[in-house]
Amino acid sequence: MTTTGSVSTLDGNTFVVSDTAGDIDASPTEPNGLFSWDTRYLSRWVLTLDGHRLNPLSTDDLHYFETRFFLVPGTGTVYVDATLSIIRRREVVDGFHEELTILNHSATPVTLTLRLDAAADFADLFEVKDHLKKKGKYYTRIDDNLLLLGYERQTYRRETLINTAAATHVDAGGHTTHNSAAAIDEHGITYTVQLGAHGSWNTELHVGCSLWGWAANQRVTARTETGHTRKDMEEDLAQWLAEAPKLECDWEPLKHTYRRSLTDLAALRFAPMTSGERTLPAAGLPWFMTMFGRDSILTSLQALPYAPSLAATTLAELGARQGSRIDDFRDEDPGKILHEMRYGELTAFEERPHSPYYGSADSTALFLILLDEYERWSGDTKLVRDLEYEARAALGWIDQYADLRGDGYVWYQTRNPDTGLENQCWKDSWDSISYTDGRLPGFPRATCELQGYTYDAKKRAARLARTVWHDPTLADRLDEQAADLKRRFNRDFWIEDRKYYALALDADGAKVDALSSNIGHLLWSGIVERRRAHHIVEHLLGPRLYSGWGIRTLAEGEERYNPVGYHVGTVWPFDNSFIAWGLRRYGYKNEAARVAAGILDAAEFFNGRLPEAFCGYDRAVTKYPVPYPTACSPQAWSTGTPLLLLGTMLGLQAVDEHLVVDPALPVGIGHLALLDVPGRWGHRDAYGRGRVQVRADDRLRKLRPQLSTLQTLVNRRES
Amino acid sequence: MTDATADYFHSLGEHGRYPLLRATSGTIRFDLTGNGHAEHWRVAIDRGHIQVSRGGEHADCVVHVAKNLFDGMVTGQVNTMAAVLRGQIDVEGELHLIVMLQRLFPGRPASPATATRRHKK
To answer: Is B39 a member of any domain?
Structure first.
């Protein structure tokens, strides 16, 4: 797929992806369409005027849930007939609405045939992604003002309900007349439009996505319980933006990126079908508009100083779905935090294990990390008390179920070889974990960052046990276990002659020796021995890992390195944001600022919206960051990346009752301030001043705070 | 003849306390149909305490499901959430109650091949 020229309108896990004219013309592999609950409810939605498709003049992205397309008829040549305009306004609010308006700019009345082709393939997102065939049958029904497209497989039934309303004509004198509704056939809707001189014509459509069998013999739309109006959504977005800290900065693109991030984060909020109004971040458009343990947790961490409510919901929801039994098909164990929840047909027929699926080895430790970090910021000890049982169960999972070789490390190996995940770490593609010579290790595997997360989770849980659960015995035991893990990890994972930690241990306990970005997460976790930190930092910012835009997932020179490989050479913004946090943790402020600047600079090329990943080409070669071909955008943890990077540049930390600020800004940012940062202190402002004064003429020359040269600049100033 | 459903409800009521449900309160009625008649089971959850009774009184959440399918749910052969998604279970009222209760149902039984691979402490 390409996202070039595609327009997304979304609300939670209902979203429309179309071309720039607003048309949906899905090929088997294109993720265009109207999607809801992982199912494509419209695969074709094409507007024609007198048999011709329309040309877009502009697209107006009003809110994330509302888009306007300004169209004109084309003649098949470059000539554009400007005597008619068509405005197509769509919203995703409680279903999908589309308003069509035609304006006649000439003094001649016209008769037009406006046609909307509609079809639904009801593909499960997994089918779109993996090109699978459907097993059920389709049906169509036509009623008064209604075109119903249906799909049925045994008891499974999904229906798209397209409702038309009467059209309205307004003549040049402002007189309004109502036309009878449209002609409906099985493949779409046809309007015969009599348009007077300087007249306008207008009609509306509503598309509902329904699931059957939810309640006895009645059809319900997915959002009945949380039905909301457009006004609600506008107010909600305004409030969301108003409650977030205000950014002040002399680098304009950063302000734009910040606002974009906050808005996208609002758009990606998602209420799981069973949680009522509570929302947490879905992972990303188009493939992952659902609850992901890892993604929801990491995004909530990134957003803690801005929108702490996301963390609270994520913890509560993931806790309520914590594993409770052994289920090999779903890789479920008691105490394990879920990987991914899905609602589509393949999940419904247990052809995929996502109801929910538990195949991630890190989300359980990350759950504990978020619980502690959330309490440090918010002071919300009530939630920590409420989740004590879940936290203890999570600790129990780490000790009892994750240690597959019985040697005190967290390992993974799927128990569902057909449809489970091979790699149960964030780099979850099949080839992500390799030796330097390109071989793939056997299973189970213990990747290094899993041990780091586990170390951090135990340290943090020890703090909660001591201060909130009043269980000093548990606290002492966790501290001892963590210290022991750190000691063993530094013995077993360290590759002495290369001065970095192995990517993983293989099934024999031997080192998987590739150099990867995973070592950066070890800094974030604090499992790196202090005397070794400088080696790690040198690798992270050395030429094999650092591209000039960011740190690559896998180092240049590794056999499987590929700058366009999903987890084997691309740069992932979220990965970099946590590495920057890790650099701060070990006192490498300038290096953290350098990583932040590279990624934020890249964000400007993506109009403030960082994709999931971009290519690992050297910055000197491409001059701009090249998007990874099928990257998701917006994607939650990429959306959260600028937020975390702002925090690392300002050195924000919640320490006891205080917000600690310790700024280190990249060259090119003169001042940076976050006003009204919420937390247990109420609201506080955080200010940072650059080490280099930015002059007005630098601004005019549009100098970016690109830090490829920072090292030399800083060295010069400090020498 | 063994009745998986009756066995399950009896043991559910006998055990009584479930920390997994300690934040959950509400009543669920199961209307199980099959062989031309319906049987009703009512589960009252009060902050993790469960009481099981028979009868068709009002409940916050009413689950309509075929008896043989329910036998599968309480023995781990059928995943409750998947069955809801494919329309085999009708749920009226508070969906979250059945979502929480089904966490007590067993997981899918292991196939012999995978069971040996699992590490046991």
So the answer is: yes
